[in-house]
Amino acid sequence: MSKEKLLKEIVELLNEYGSNSSINPSVLEFLEETDLVEIKKSLLESKKHHLDDRQWLESFKKEL
């Protein structure tokens, strides 16, 4: 996968939280593809925890 495509996917993941984030493409000069893959993995893991937390909170809402 290209570094540009990974950067685009990272920005899309960041924007799923309601912000309008952007990352200057010049950072690609300083990051390796493996770095970008790890950032993407971290964001996906964070998203998973966010969804798990939301489901957990929703279970309390249903009990009330």
Biggest sheet statistics:
none
Report the radius of gyration as a whole number of Å. 15 Å
β-strand percent reads: under 5%
Helix content: 55-70%
Helical stretch count?
Answer: 2
Which geometry do the CA atoms define?
A: elongated
Class from secondary-structure proportions = mainly alpha
What separation lies between the terminal Cα atoms? 47 Å
Say how many strands there are: 0
Average pLDDT rating: 86
* Helix/strand order: HH
Model regions low in confidence, pLDDT < 50 over at least 5 residues? none
What do these coordinates show?
This protein is mainly α. Helices cover 69% and strands 0% of the residues. Helix 1 packs parallel to helix 2 (33-63). The relative contact order is 0.14.
